[in-house]
Amino acid sequence: MAAKLIEGDPQRLGDYRLAGRLGAGRRGVVYEAYDSGGRRVAVKVPHGDSELWRPLAGEVAAIRAAAPYCTARVIDADCAGARPYVVSEYVAGPSLRGAGRTLAGPDLLHLAAALATALTALHEAGIVHRDLTPDNVLLGPDGPRVVGFGPVSPTETTLTWPRLAMSAPAYTAPEAFTGREYGPAADVFAWGAVVFHAATGREAFEGSSLGTVMHRVLSVDPDLGPIPQPLRALVADALAKDPERRPTARDLLRDLVHADATVRLGAPCLAPDCLTHASPAACLPAACLAPSGGEAPRWAQEWTAERLTAEEVLGRRVCLADALLVARAPLTLDFLLAAGGAMAARLRTPCDDPGLGTVAEDAYVTLDPADRPFAPAMFLRLADGRGGPRGTRGTEERIAEAFGPLVVRAGDLARLADPALPYAWPRLAGWIEADRDARARLARDRLFWLALTTLLTLALVVALATRGGPV
């Protein structure tokens, strides 16, 4: 849930009306906002000189073109304005850190896959996240989403280790402390540290001071005992001190997808080339096949006969493990991303985080039917900043009370608690549009009658002048 805007925060950016603060970090401030159609979005306003962001339209385009798996999709951006901003879809749900719980078993595997899927999509688009932490992982109702990435100003591409470390030292790769290039391998290191946090609820590199944390990142290997295999081995590889020894995000995703297939199949680990074998059934463990001379499993009969591709299998919502086993070609990037996204979708986190429009509509439907006709006039005044309640005082007081925190009352005066409500609540937006149209019609009617009266007056003057009588 967003906190209130503070002094200095913008009220509006482009077509987006800001409703509150979702968070602030090293890169900037993220706001809850609504577009002119009432869609709820997240708007990120970066720190720094706006002039530095003008050349970054190309990077924004690359971000928007990244495969939309396990990340908050970028909807819009303006790098050329006086106050640059990036707009992404709103993800309802707590952060991994804010959720205050640890994950185990399939949930932990699915989270790890979600993060690897997001990093693979970003890295394949040429984007380095640079700030993957538990705070930038949201546990959404449709699976985990990675947020916090975005265009990087020229000053940030050459960040020195103090600036990176002060933000999240326990998730900063060793090369950032030693002046080496901070690239995709650093994101993989952060992946390992975030998975460790998800499994244990603590940092992989704890310390009471920055120096202590830095020493541990550079010299100490954390105890990975609480993380089960095969995930433990992947985390150990990701946390290697030498970036050259770490796997790529795509390597991690491939191994996680294979591990998930093995678990779902209930069989021992399969050889890597099994999933690209011309005849997948040939390399399955004997326990997964029918007895010699017996009938082959039904799935093998159906899928071998139809020669399904990976995309066709996933499109039919067939078991992910079986989909991998019937893949008749090397696993493509699209296949891996789709498989990782399917794994991530199994970690769903229910969230009660309704938008302003939903809260307002729920309040409206609870009004007494006799009071509802008075709501439009009252909210039109509030939207115009004219205060209220007035007129039918008892009725409008009941309406204001029903809307609770959305209407702030002080004696006889009232105002909208959030100026974004006219954007967020479609019903109020409809009232405003209808009122605007009515005012425009009234203005046109007044202009018409004024013109007609003027013409009649001129006609009368001409007629009297023509007769020679007094005007």
Automatic annotation (TrEMBL):
The chain crosses the membrane at residues 447-466. It is an enzyme of class 2 (transferase). The keyword ATP-binding applies. Residues 16-261 form the Protein kinase domain. InterPro entries: Kinase-like_dom_sf, NEK_Ser/Thr_kinase, Prot_kinase_dom, Tyr_kinase_AS. CDD domains: STKc_PknB_like. GO terms for molecular function: ATP binding; protein serine/threonine kinase activity. Keywords: ATP-binding, Kinase, Membrane, Nucleotide-binding, Transferase, Transmembrane, Transmembrane helix. The keyword Transcription regulation does not apply. Pfam families: Pkinase. Its EC number is 2.7.11.1. PANTHER family: SERINE/THREONINE-PROTEIN KINASE NEK, SERINE_THREONINE-PROTEIN KINASE NEK2. This is non-specific serine/threonine protein kinase. It comes from Streptosporangium saharense.
